[in-house]
């Protein structure tokens, strides 16, 4: 059976005081994980939460209805809208 786990090639170094390291080691022991596994798992969970918070948009019901209406009935193209798209194209690179 092939190993589907990604190859770990990156390394990250952090400095911390002795008490912090002891606390992390103690928690890792309780979780039956190595210190690296414990720290990485919790750091990735925290990263997912921060990313979700910044990349998710929640709308009120009335705002959602306005949004859907705009999708179903887009505004007519105007010179200002065309200018806005042109400006966006100049400023945003993918």
What does this structure look like?
This protein has 94 residues and is an all-alpha fold. The chain folds into two domains: 18-55; 61-91, no CATH class. It is built from four helices and no strands. It has helices spanning 18-30, 35-55, 61-72, 79-91. Helix 1 packs across helix 2 (35-55). The longest helix is centred in the middle third of the chain and has 21 residues, at 35-55. The chain is elongated. The mean pLDDT is 93.
Secondary structure elements and their pairing?
Elements: H1 18-30, H2 35-55, H3 61-72, H4 79-91
Helix pairs in contact: 1-2
Give structural attributes.
single chain, 94 residues, mainly alpha, elongated
For the terminal residues, how far apart are their CA atoms?
38 Å
Q: Pairing-aware structural class of the strands and helices?
A: mainly alpha
Instruction: State the major sheet.
Output: none
Instruction: Calculate the mean pLDDT score and round it.
Output: 93
Domain module count: 2
List low-confidence stretches.
none
Shape: elongated
Total helical segments: 4
Topology as a string of helices (H) and strands (E): HHHH
Radius of gyration: 24 Å
Q: Share of helix among residues?
A: 55-70%
Care to count the β-strands? 0
Task: Report strand %.
Answer: under 5%
């Amino acid at each position: 059976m092939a190993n589907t786990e990604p190859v770990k090639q990156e390394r990250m170094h952090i400095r911390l005081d002795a008490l912090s390291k002891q606390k992390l080691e103690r928690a890792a022991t309780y979780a039956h994980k190595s210190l690296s596994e414990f720290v990485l798992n919790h750091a990735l969970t925290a990263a997912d939460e921060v990313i979700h918070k910044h990349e998710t948009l929640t709308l009120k019901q009335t705002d959602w209805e306005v949004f859907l209406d705009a999708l179903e009935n887009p505004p007519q193209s105007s010179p200002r809208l065309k200018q806005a798209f042109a400006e966006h194209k100049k400023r945003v690179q993918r």
